[in-house]
Amino acid sequence: MSTDVTAKSPAPAPPGGSGPAADGLLGVMLAGLRRNMRQYGMLIALGLIVVLFAIWTDGDLLLPRNVSNLVLQNSYILILAIGMMLVIIAGHIDLSVGSLTAFTGAFAAVLTVQHGVSWPVALVLCLVMGAVAGSIQGYLIAYLGIPSFIVTLAGMLLFRGLTEILLKGQTLGPFPDGLQKLGNGFLPEVGPNTNYHNLTLLLGLVLIAAVVWQEFRDRRRQQEFSLDVLPARLFLLKLTALVAAILVVTLLLASYKGTPIVLIVLGVLVVGYGYVMRNAVFGRHIYAIGGNLPAAKLSGVKDKKVTFYVFLNMGVLAALAGLVVAARLNAASPKAGVNFELEAIASSFIGGASMSGGVGTVLGAIIGGLVLGVLNNGMNLLSVGTDWQQVIKGLALLLAVGFDVWNKRKSGS
Prior knowledge:
Elements: H1 20-35, H2 37-56, H3 64-89, H4 97-114, H5 119-142, H6 148-167, H7 177-184, H8 198-224, H9 232-254, H10 261-279, H11 281-291, H12 293-298, H13 303-329, H14 340-350, H15 362-381, H16 386-412
Helix pairs in contact: 2-15, 3-9, 3-10, 3-13, 3-14, 3-15, 4-5, 4-6, 4-13, 5-6, 5-13, 7-13, 8-9, 10-11, 11-13, 14-15, 14-16
């Protein structure tokens, strides 16, 4: 007795596009998203937070004036977050940056207000002072082996005390006009009257072109080395989202006063440090000593020298942030910079840094800082009390670090 087995051909896909082919494409896209969740998770979260607060505030969050203020109010935290991300990637921490920003502002005020030093000279001297402060801490950490937590905790107390001594407990100002523009200035108007800031529109178009070129270039290089790349549709979706975001921000800024000068400074820092961390030997060494210090030593990485320069760099960026804060307030205050170190650390961890070191990106630090900045700004627009603001920001940090732990465990399994 024989059994007749007849192979059945698969049913054709329905016209709606939900057949096996569509399911396979969706699966590939979801798999690509899962593989890159660490990279894109907080970017998606930032987009959702912006949308939610835009709805809750009846659009006030995305008013041109508010977007401009959002950039000015968070610029110094973003500057600190870039340096802090490098410190955390190297496996360390810096608790002194808030006090160092206050001390830099006090130093600038004493130079320009009390002694009449021209603001460009004062700016250079403040950056040099930040480099000296960072190098001292870096030497103690790298060459004497004192834990960074202890050294920078001592630095936090030291610089806060020196700020009080310099200012004698009083607020000192105002600053020269040139220095004020660092924290409050905008690029000048050029060209015909178009009801928009023409130079901002031009910069936005240049940035869009640069981003599109860079994305295609990176994708082509990854394919040349047979590395995993995003599926084509997911890549185009990502590129479209980036271009749309840049275009919206450009139009919002151009419809108010234009591009803040500090945003240009921040853009230069992001591009420069992003290149160093991706392409330069020094950046790869930072990742190496944070990811696996014994292996890095065996590979010939000069870990002490790298650590020293990481903290020197943090000192310079803290000094720059201090100048921006003082310029924005148009005065140096003994209470300036309070909790800035916590904001910078939180921005780094929310942006994807790992507690164990060796993981993180400059762009991630910016995204983390923007998440906190939008949360602060949105809650202020909604008149949320400072007590609940602290609770919400603490939960945001906890969720970000929890996501990092969960993601690493899932990747390991």
